[in-house]
Amino acid sequence: MNDQNNKLDVLLVRFLCNRHGDATMNIEQMGLLYVGTYAAKNGYKVRIQDSPNLTFGVLMEIVQNCELKVIGFYVDHENVNATMSVINDLKSIDEHILCVIGGPQGSAIPWDERILQESKCDMVVRGEGELTFTELLNWFFKGKGDLKLIPGITYRENNQIKRNSERPPMQNLDQLPLPDHSLNFDRKEPNGSESLITSRGCPYHCAFCFEGKRESAYRTRSISNVMEEVEELLKIRHPVYLTILDDTFTVNPERVLEFCHGMKQLRQKYYNVRWFCEGRANFITKYPEIVPVMVEAGLIRIQIGIETGNQHILDAYNKNLRLEEIRETVRICAEADVLSIVGNFIVGGAHENWETVKNSRKFAEELLEIGKGRLELTTTIYTPYPGTPMNDHPEAFGLKMLDPDCETGPGDDYCFLETNEISKWEIMHARQMLIETIGAKMFYLLPSVPYALLLRHYQAFYRLGIRTTWHNVSEGLPNYHSYFTKLLKGDYMHWPLIPSGEIEKYKPVRTIFIGTSHNGQFILDLQYRQIELNKISGFIYEHCYGRLTIEAIISRVQQKYFSQEEREDVKKMVLELFELFDAEKLCIFTKY
Question: E strands along 107-175, which residues?
Fold first, then answer.
């Protein structure tokens, strides 16, 4: 932290507090970046600390070295308690530091008041923070304005909590400056992946989602403004993969097409950057012709809302979506050659029982068949988010809250309630059953996934940093993982691609260790099953170490077992065996 000895006006921080998760895997907090950029454009010296490994000790070092006066904290459902504890310790050391909280948890009434009641936090910014936070800085540093007249804040005055009126959502998003990534101390150096937001709010009103509950209208940036940001990212930070963080990117077909046109131009001008977005099934089924255009413009991964395999639960969630539209969306995206189609199932949500769990498991298997080699299914346990219909009126959804503040575990991965028909522990077991159903179906389908498609999943991981579920499944099988990683290194060939006239010049390389059975036969443990080789196939596989050509192996097989046979007959048998080895990913071939 050798450049921390500079005076700062404002520090913006996020503490990542998933106690049992992988803190190294996170997406840049774009809300902090927008708030910090706007304050910086208004003359304030700002730094953002958004490291997954940020600690209280690091924070205090910055406070002491940089003469800080104001710290803004991003809080969500997961980190609110830890952040309040940090603020309490911070204020006990220096009570004059102004501590401000923003983010979704503080924006959910009555959490704004709870934060002030349960911590030494000075004020909470509700809703979008760019204008509100900068007006607070003007009041604090310059004495401009009146705290009582700043909309969108909740604060403490004379031991009383005051809640000002709401700030209307910003209508012209183009007036905001483009995010300045240099403000983020922990992410100054590009890592190949960048995020952007092209719209705010959501036109839909899903019962479990905070965005759908908010009063903010759906608003979009102009595509010209978005393309300006994308071009700046390509020129300065050189990402290979862009994550569009809009809650729903596919709302307006004309806007999506305009975006795709802009992306095609930038990809021609610079390089073939790939991107991700969230889509909506009934949009895709209504405008299926748009998906190939998106793929041509660089779309490699899309997420769609699935949630359940039960129509009445979709209706309870106010999804305005039919199960058949989900099936058709997976089919459309697969046929359009989208590499990764992501969907999530919520377990333990509205009106869940054992019959609905069974239906979701069956629906998951059906969708995986439709999207074989492309569809990725994740699972979460329903988490009650403040300010959402399901949290505020659980009884209307057949739910009974047991831990409404979610103090006993991580959101999405632990259960805080029960339904009218199944208990908390049964919900957690049902989620595990769904995970096992998905995993078993993927293992079953894996051998029939085309070689070229699996190779693209490995390319996505090694070249773009996208770890798909299909990559993970094959990575867990030693023969598959060895096979595809060798292909990526170059100089190795998939059997059907070897020119017929050059086959005997190639050297086979086995992809798995050889074991032996009690009777001395060769056994290949593929984890999902074992293959026992007879003497001849075992002899051939033993010689697949990459030192002998196929020509030499044919000669040795003929000499040892078929000395009276014609070479062409022996060759035919050996080549057929190599074809089988390749199909099982037991062997790969090289000239070198």
Answer: 123-125, 153-157, 160-163
pLDDT for residue 5 is more than 80:
no
Q: Return the closest-CA partner of residue 76 out of 130, 115, 131.
A: 115
Q: How far apart are CA 157 and CA 31, in angstroms?
A: 27
Q: Is 311 helix (H, G, I), strand (E, B) or coil?
A: helix
Residue for token pair 């500079």: 6
Residue 442: CB atoms within 10 A of its CB come to 22
Give pLDDT tens digits for 384-423: 998 899 999 999 999 999 999 999 999 999 999 999 999 9
Upstream peptide bond of 110 is cis (omega within 30 degrees of 0): yes
Q: Give the Cα separation of 125 and 116 in Å (integer).
A: 12
Say what the pLDDT of residue 518 is: 67
Question: Torsion-angle region of residue 513: left (phi > 0), alpha (psi -120 to 50) or beta?
Answer: beta
Q: Which domains are assigned to the chain?
A: 10-163 (3.40.50.2300), 190-448 (3.80.30.20), 478-590 (3.90.930)
- Is 404 within 8 Å of 416 (Cβ atoms)? yes
pLDDT for residue 19 is more than 60: no
Beta strands in 370-480 (DSSP E): 375-381, 399-401, 417-419
Nearest by Cα to 451 from 266, 313, 584, 305:
584
62-79 mean pLDDT: 93
Total-model pTM: 0.92
The pLDDT mean for the chain works out to 93
Beta strands in 435-491 (DSSP E): none
